[in-house]
Design goal:
This protein has helices spanning 2-17, 37-51, 66-75. It has 3 helices and no strands.
Length: 79
């Protein structure tokens, strides 16, 4: 399930935000794939919508890695 969530997150990062996440390693930070602070806030909203989970302010930062983001969504019980 984690792989599916990570694949979906990478797809969201690429499609909705133009981030270079497809070829990024899972320990790449959101900043490293080209996300700025506004895009990260929008990402949090998109994650809430796509996975039906609540994301609090500050849970996702520019230093959050793709694997940490996957773990966050997984632990929140993504649907």
């Amino acid at each position: 399930m984690t792989t599916t969530i990570q694949s979906k997150l990478v797809h969201i990062l690429d499609d909705k935000f133009g981030a270079a996440a497809t070829n990024a390693v899972s320990d790449a930070s959101l900043e490293e794939v080209g996300m700025d602070s506004l895009a990260i806030v929008e990402l949090g909203l998109e994650i809430q919508k796509q996975f039906n989970v609540s994301v609090e302010e500050g849970e996702i930062t520019p230093d959050t890695t793709i694997s940490e983001l996957t773990e966050l969504v997984t632990t929140k019980g993504a649907e």
